[in-house]
Amino acid sequence: MTFVSSSEQKPAARLIIALLTRSRRAFGVALVACVLNGVASVMLVATLNRALSAPASSDGTLAWRFALCAVVALCTRVVSGVLFARLSQDTMAQLREHVARRVAAAELRDVERIGAAPVQSVLTDDATNVSMLFFALPNIVMHGSIVFGCLGYLAWLSWPVCLLALTAIVTGSLGYHLGDRRAIASLQAAGQSQDKLFGYLGALFAGAKELKLHRARLRQFVDGQLGAAIGEVRDHRRRAFSAYAVGVGWIIFLFYGFLGAAAFWPSLGVRANAGATAGYVVVFLFMLVPLDGLLNNIPTLNAARVSLTRIEKVMAEFGSVSVATAEQTSSTHDARFRTLTMRGVTHAYFHERDERMFRIGPVDLTLSPGELVFIVGGNGSGKTTLAKVLTGLYEPESGVIEIDGMPVTEGERAAYRERFTAVFNDFHLFDGLLGIVDPSDASRAAADARANALVAKLALDHKVQVIDGAFSTRSLSTGQRKRLALVVAYLEDRPLYLFDEWAADQDPAFKAVFYEQLLPELRSRGKTVIVVTHDDRYFPIADRVLKLENGVVASETRGGGVRTAAVDVVGSGARGRMEFVRKESER
């Protein structure tokens, strides 16, 4: 019986084989246990059938055989159930790790284009379908073994009766296959609708403020868009499992017809031998339950195969970057460099505001250690995109980025990114000093002390503490979380720093601290600092000010390059302002 098309089977088969590679021994033992369970079950019915027609003198031998088969059936059932339960959870964990690593290894452009909704759907609904395969698989193998064993026993009893049973099963399978194709199509459509549903569920949280302020919008969103997506998933799955229910009913009906024909068709000779008739009835009734169980588990098998195919397709959208390549990064943030140069670099992307393709470049730019550069320009001029290209998050479509005259190749781009520490405008703050403090490192107490000293200097110590490399809370305002992200950036201690509108969410006191103390202190340590900003009152602090217009550098102005001999992160001039902010925030 064909469950999915051959083109869909190949990626699903590749993925499941890859996931089971580490558990192949347990998987093999579980399958053998299932087959042995089927054999023991058939031996049970054969022994019971023989006992009904055997003389009383053989009852003791048959009873011991029956007991032995029952014990074997019990043990193999338990062993296969336990092993498949472990395989289910192990495979789900491996699948989620596979997806997470694939997304982590993908290029930023692909991550932004695809979004979180398909991945969330894959990690929840599709991963659950795959895990359920391992609860259905033992039943499929055991019930299949019992059905085929019963057919073999029927063939030993009577070839005509066995052929009649096979005819009923084959005829029923043809009708089942027609419904199966419709069910597969409905399951695939349900997966696509599930992606939309997860997108709307994300909007339910991200847009909570806007929904609370507008009752009509809330009603239209929940009852309209979100409700429609929920209804689509429900309807597609209804159609899929209804098709399976009709198919199972059709096969069982034909099996009843087979029972009637075997019992009432005189030419089969069933009525001529009462003992043979009893044997047929016992085998028929014993085979009915496993056949029903086998057919009812096929939808779970098909749902898992559709989910595996969908997972592979979603992962293919993230490109073919290997996880090993992404993880092979050297300690380039410790390396010295003399110049970082962009030569004729361009990059195009879809500009949502103008609904057109927008291109930055060609950009020619050279950066040196101990230099503070501001990038300015109006909204939509390409500042953030240029920052992402500069840091290696976006690949240049033309031109080249060079370190000390050597071009950064495709294979070196992951290592090149390791030179940068960046706090973007849409930054994410993790819950600890990930990548900076090793939880098993004995020196993490010293790292905590350094981090807490910076936290105190940024007037956050009354809100948050760093304990064992983790933040005690992230329930902070946007400006406070940006200050905490700045603490992480300082501790990374890399040669290039990029701040994208860092001061936009800060009050004047912290803006002054950032521009007058923190940036010059980084520069004095030999760091290359790039700042995307609109704060024109601080332009004189920079060594250079680059103005972007329509994606190109329209002008370059030399700033004052005001340098301070800052040794402490926060100077005495700013300390009074910090104390005022601290008192205000504690009130």
From TrEMBL:
GO biological process: peptide transport
InterPro entries: AAA+_ATPase, ABC1_TM_dom, ABC1_TM_sf, ABC_transporter-like_ATP-bd, Cyc_pep_transpt_SyrD/YojI, P-loop_NTPase, Type_1_exporter
Keyword Protease set for record: no
GO cellular component: plasma membrane
Single annotated GO MF: ABC-type transporter activity
Annotated transmembrane regions: 26-48, 63-85, 133-155, 161-179, 243-265, 277-295
Keywords: ATP-binding, Cell inner membrane, Cell membrane, Membrane, Nucleotide-binding, Transmembrane, Transmembrane helix
Subcellular location: Cell membrane
Residue ranges annotated for the ABC transporter domain, each copy included: 340-575
NCBIfam families, sorted: cyc_pep_trnsptr (TIGR01194)
Name the record gives this protein: Siderophore biosynthesis related ABC transport protein
Organism, scientific name: Caballeronia hypogeia
